[in-house]
Every structure is written in structure tokens, then in C-alpha cells.
Amino acid sequence: MPKSHGMCALICFAGAMITCLNWPTPAPQHGSVFVPAMMIWGVASLFQFLLAAGHLRTSILDHQHLLSNGRLERQGDLGWIVANVVVLLVVAMFYARQADSIPVLAGQMPTLVSLLVTNLISLVIWSIRWSVMNRAPKSSP
Known about the structure:
The chain is built from five helices and no strands. By secondary structure, it is mainly alpha-helical.
């Protein structure tokens, strides 16, 4: 698992860089969406950097066998899984609204695609880790 978390950290970091470079550029007739688009852009960038940091941390700790007790690790994994699902639902909502979607009006489709890809991959990695941790012997309370 450490290598898969390390690779996922690189993918999430690349996604964060794509998001950071995808500055909101709404058309003149949609100038009113600039401020909300900036907020979405900032939150998306920050979340992807945090996601990359979470995978990198887990990769390092897994590699060095410095894990917490199983219950805490499973709770952390579940927290990341929930965060990934929430982000995927928000991305789906933005995409479904098309003409009324702030990121679409601000030309931020690369941000939505980046969020979609990084969170799908991250969700798979966290889910696998959670299921493996669930099957591991429960030696600690």
C-alpha cells in the first residue's frame, strides 16, 4: 500500500497544480460569477494539496510501519472516503447544472475534471486500505 499511496499523492499533487493554473476566466457577460469562481478555485486547490499531503503522510507511515492503532487508522481512512464522496457529489452537481454552473461559466472545466480524476483514484486507494485494515487482526482496543 505505501507505493500506491505515494503514486496517488503524485497524482493529487499534479491535479492541484492543474487546478492552480486554471484561473477562473468568465466571459464578460458572466462577470458576476468571478468572485464565487475564485472561492471555488481556492477551495479546490487547497483540497487537492491536502489530499496529496494525506496520501504522502500515509505512504511514509505505512512504509516505516509507524501506524496508529487499527481503529484510528480505519477512522482516518473513513474520513478520507467521506471527503472524496462529498467532492465527487459536488463535482457531479456542478457538471449536471451546465449552463447555471459557476465553474462551467468561469471556464474551469479542467478543475472539475482534475477533481473528478484525483478523487476517484483517491477513493479507490482509501477504500482498499480501509478494507485491508478492516480485515487485519484487531490486536488493540
